[in-house]
Design a protein that fits this description.
The two termini are 41 Å apart. This protein has a seven-stranded mixed beta sheet, with helices on both faces. A four-stranded mixed beta sheet has the order 6-12-13-15. A two-stranded parallel sheet has the order 1-14. By secondary structure, the protein is an alpha/beta fold. It has helices at 12-23, 39-50, 67-81, 96-106, 125-131, 159-165, 188-200, 240-243, 258-269, 277-292, 300-322, 356-368, 398-406; strands spanning 26-27, 91-94, 114-119, 135-140, 142-143, 150-151, 155-156, 170-176, 204-208, 234-239, 252-255, 325-328, 334-338, 370-371, 390-394. The protein has two domains: 3-37 and 299-406, Aspartate Aminotransferase, domain 1, CATH 3.90.1150.10; 41-292, Aspartate Aminotransferase, domain 2, CATH 3.40.640.10. The longest helix is centred in the last third of the chain and has 23 residues, at 300-322. The structure holds 4'-deoxy-4'-aminopyridoxal-5'-phosphate and glutamine (GLN). 4'-deoxy-4'-aminopyridoxal-5'-phosphate (PMP) binds at residues 31, 96-98, 122, 176, 180, 208, 210, 239, 241, 247, 252.
Length: 410
């Protein structure tokens, strides 16, 4: 194994996908929908796949992004970011948001550069930064004391801790809002604090906004690139997999100023070069369809959040009935749950893992047949204990609603 990947051999996904295949639990682990994607979206894919009048749709497309898709993305995002996005220069399409993150990190991080990550973080950020030669500097969100229920907005950064993470070696700040795994939707004040420090230290910002359409009122998604002085230094990442509940299509994108997108293009052209034309064309047509009904309550970009809010509330109620404590998410489709009130029921010692959230998540998968993800996978080594009392459940799945109906024994 190349040295740059030494220490990154383990991934929670490979292990927990295996466990799910072996023990057949109710799978609330990896984040994906277990119901049919919107009909117009799959129909677009079928139409494109079968089209013999446009044979070139079965061939390579423009490397930096299929033209119809980057134009549709420009139409979607231009009004949201308050500027006319140049579809050829300020947008790039990628193999899922994963590849957009990879291109942004590899296109900007040099050996020795520091990259600030907010913990818990989507786990791939850390190995990508390390492989690029960068040094992750991790600052944790901490749940503040609350009376009554806990919301993801109660998970906060300490400003002094945030400020102390910046040094003259800081190159990049990675921000994920809405946040996986807490569901936090960063507020204007919180974003302004981060923006202030990025400008002060001349730092780039990578905004992972793949859950942008899944925000539950009264929370409001604010795009970091729209804050004063932030467009110039921000790359924003999105995902068709999350937008249309088609994670298997692996189409993602990024937008930002031309000079930063150019750097991503260089990584992309030396990596995969171009991504699946058929899926890009289908995503483009699907976005055009949504654009035509953008103000309708049926628009999938709006109806998905409505549907998810209902599911979120059902999961919150179910979790509370077990005695566990949910952090009620304001966005995304994950929920962090404090399982420690159930610890007396669980034989943690049956599992040899070091971290108790791994012991809990594995024991539950095997014995209770409910799978969640242990969140210490989303913390750097020195901070893994902060995830110890939690498990992450994904609530987009219809299987859990069905399971609740027949009676779930947590
Ligand atoms: N960022 C976050 C925060 C995620 O949760 C995920 C998982 N889907 C990704 C990026 C990767 O998205 P994609 O499936 O489009 O590669
Ligand atoms: N984003 C999804 C999750 O957090 C899938 C992650 C993955 O497959 N690596 O569960």
């Amino acid at each position: 194994l190349a040295l740059k990947y030494k220490g990154s051999e383990y991934t929670v996904w490979a292990e927990f996908i295996e466990l799910a295949a072996k023990y057949h639990p109710l799978n609330l682990g990896q984040g994906f929908a277990d119901f049919a994607a919107p009909g117009h979206v799959t129909r677009c894919l079928a139409d494109v796949a079968l089209s013999d009048d446009q044979p070139l749709l079965q061939q390579y497309s423009r490397g930096y992004g299929h033209v119809r898709l980057v134009s549709a993305l420009s139409k979607i995002y231009s009004p949201l970011v308050g500027r006319e996005l140049d579809s050829r220069k300020e947008l790039i399409t990628t193999a899922g948001a994963y590849e957009a993150l990879f291109c942004a990190i590899f296109g900007h991080v040099n050996p020795g550069d520091e990259v600030i990550l907010i913990e818990p973080f989507f786990d791939c950020y850390e190995p990508m930064v390390r492989a690029a030669g960068g040094k992750p500097v991790c600052i944790p969100l901490r749940p503040v004391e609350t009376i009554g229920s806990v919301s993801s907005k109660d998970w906060k950064l300490n400003f002094e801790e945030l400020e102390s993470a910046f040094t003259k070696s800081t190159k990049l700040f990675i921000l994920n809002t809405p946040h996986n795994p807490t569901g936090k939707v960063f507020t204007a004040d919180e974003l302004e604090n981060i923006a202030f420090l990025c400008k002060k230290w001349n730092v780039l910002l990578l905004a992972d906004e793949v859950y942008e359409w899944m925000v539950y009122q009264p929370a409001k998604h604010i795009r970091m690139c729209t804050l004063p002085g932030m467009w110039e230094r921000t790359i924003t990442v999105g995902s068709a997999g999350k937008t249309f509940s088609v994670t298997g299509w692996k189409i993602g994108w990024a937008y930002g100023p031309e000079n930063l997108v150019k750097n991503m293009q260089v990584v992309h052209q030396n990596n995969v070069n171009s991504v699946n034309t058929v899926a890009q064309e289908a995503v483009a047509r699907s976005l055009e369809y949504e654009l035509a009904r953008i103000d309708s309550p049926d628009c999938y970009l709006v109806s998905l959040a409505r549907d998810l809010k209902g599911k979120r509330d059902i999961l919150v109620k179910t979790i509370m009935e077990t005695g566990m404590v949910p952090t009620i998410p304001e966005g995304g489709y994950f929920m962090l749950v404090d399982w420690s009130p159930l610890a007396y029921k669980v034989k943690l010692d049956d599992e040899p893992d070091t971290h108790k959230d791994f012991k809990f998540a594995k024991w539950m998968t095997k014995n209770v047949k409910i799978q969640g993800i242990p969140p210490s996978a989303f913390y750097s080594f020195p901070h893994k204990e902060l995830g110890g009392n939690y498990v992450r459940y994904c609530f987009i799945k219809v299987s859990f609603i069905r399971a609740i109906r027949v009676g779930l024994n947590w």
